[in-house]
Amino acid sequence: DVQLVESGGGSVQAGGSLRLSCAASGSNIDNRCMGWFRQAPGSEREMIATLDSDGSTTYADSVKGRFTIFKDNAKDILYLQMSRLKPEDTATYYCAAERLCSELGDEYNYWGQGTQVTVS
Question: What pLDDT digit, counting tens, does each position of 19-44 carry?
Fold first, then answer.
């Protein structure tokens, strides 16, 4: 089993930065794909970034060049560094983990509780 706890959300002005954290615990964390998803009211959940166990990353086109996913393997904490934030980045952000990476949220069995990001 895997437990995920996000933190770091908040309100920021457009152009600003935020760093989200996801503390992971449980079995085989180092061998799992971990990712960030977001969902805005009235919108579908979308993949933002994934980090595979081999270090490879994927990003949604909407955040490429602005967001960076990385992990502190010693502490099992996944991060999402968000820069040049835009109002359209406003959403609840979720951390997810699964054995294999996928852009589809339905493929992930482990989720955090979410953290709100508001950009004005």
Answer: 999 999 998 888 899 999 999 999 99
Residue whose pair of structure tokens reads 């270090």 in the numeric block: 55
**Token duo for residue 68:** 């960076």
SS3 content of the chain, % helix, strand, coil (to 5): 10, 50, 40
Distance separating alpha carbons of residues 44 and 33, to the nearest angstrom = 21
Q: Read off the tokens for 98.
A: 């699964």
pLDDT digit string, tens, across residues 44-57? 999 999 999 999 99
The DSSP symbol for 99 reads S
Residues 117, 43: Cα–Cα separation, whole Å: 15
